[in-house]
Amino acid sequence: MKEIDNEKHEKWMRLAIEEAQKAQQLAEVPIGAIVVLNDEIIGRGYNLRETTQDATTHAEMIAIREACQNVGSWRLEESQLYVTLEPCPMCSGAMILSRVKEVYFGAYDPKGGTAGTLMNLLTDERFNHQAHVVGGVLETECGQLLTDFFRELRLRKKKLKKG
């Protein structure tokens, strides 16, 4: 098993959290992602599903798309992806297809996580590529963003019903 440099991973996850906060400013579910190559950010993204009305505009998909454009290749073989919430099947698939080397996520997703919770697509040896996966990086902070967002959303909906 690979030695984990918590300080480095926390630094990158904090930058993914900054991306999530951009989504939150737009009333989007606060999920953020960054792609890192050679200690440099090559892709950033945050959830835009409500804004775009496009189911594929998850933080990871946007970050992977930008990273591929920045390196001029669909292969991200030596890259690391940091995301504030455990990836869904679509995003895990994109990580496999783009050959992301390592995936670090914050909060676990009991309803849709496919990096260990419901299944682990990223390490499934039936695929032609596997990624090293570490979950729970700044898990409390990442989870709190989501908890606060959904609590606020429920309060707004409740006020609308009463109003």
From TrEMBL:
GO MF term (any one): zinc ion binding
Tagged with keyword Magnesium: no
Catalysed conversion reaction: adenosine(34) in tRNA + H2O + H(+) = inosine(34) in tRNA + NH4(+)
InterPro entries hit by this protein: APOBEC/CMP_deaminase_Zn-bd, CMP_dCMP_dom, Cytidine_deaminase-like, MafB19-deam, tRNA_aden_deaminase
Any one of the GO BP annotations: tRNA wobble adenosine to inosine editing
Cofactor: Zn(2+)
Keywords: Hydrolase, Metal-binding, tRNA processing, Zinc
PROSITE patterns: CYT_DCMP_DEAMINASES_1, CYT_DCMP_DEAMINASES_2
Residues of the active site: 60 (proton donor)
Enzyme Commission number: 3.5.4.33
Domain of life: Bacteria
NCBIfam families hit by this protein: PRK10860.1
Sequence similarity: Belongs to the cytidine and deoxycytidylate deaminase family. ADAT2 subfamily.
PANTHER family, per database record: CYTOSINE DEAMINASE FAMILY MEMBER (PTHR11079), TRNA-SPECIFIC ADENOSINE DEAMINASE (PTHR11079:SF202)
Chain's role: Catalyzes the deamination of adenosine to inosine at the wobble position 34 of tRNA(Arg2).
Protein name: tRNA-specific adenosine deaminase
Organism annotation: Enterococcus hirae
